[in-house]
Write a structure and sequence with these properties.
Blueprint: H1 18-31, H2 44-51, H3 55-67, E1 71-74, E2 78-81
Antiparallel strand pairs: 1-2
Length: about 90
C-alpha cells in the first residue's frame, strides 16, 4: 500500500520553514501508508539524524503533527501515528 513515488523528497533548503517542511513530509508518509495508524515513530533524535536536521526542529515538527491530530505522544512509551487518523474533507467537522 506504500506509494513512495507520491512522497516528494525532503528539501530543507526550500522556501518553507524547515520544521513545517518536515511536518509536511511526515504527513505525506502517513497518508501514503508508509507510517500506518498505530505505528511507532522513531525517536526524535533518530528522526533528526535521518532527516539531517536539528533535534529541536523535529520537536517543533512533532508539535505541528500533534496539532494536526496525526500523531500522539505517550509519556514513557513513545510517539505513535494516530489510530484512527483524523477525517479530512469538507464534512470533517460535521
Amino acid at each position: 500500500m506504500t506509494d513512495r513515488e507520491q512522497i516528494s523528497e525532503f528539501n530543507p533548503q526550500g522556501p518553507q520553514l524547515v520544521y513545517l517542511a518536515l511536518a509536511d513530509h511526515v504527513t505525506a508518509r502517513i497518508k501514503a501508508g508508509e507510517l500506518p495508524p498505530g505505528s511507532r515513530l522513531p525517536a526524535e533524535r533518530d528522526l533528526a539524524q535521518e532527516y539531517g536536521v536539528a533535534y529541536l526542529t523535529v520537536r517543533r515538527a512533532a508539535r505541528v503533527l500533534r496539532e494536526r491530530g496525526l500523531i500522539l505522544t505517550v509519556h514513557g512509551k513513545g510517539t505513535f501515528v494516530a489510530d484512527p487518523l483524523p477525517v479530512e474533507g469538507p464534512d470533517a467537522g460535521a
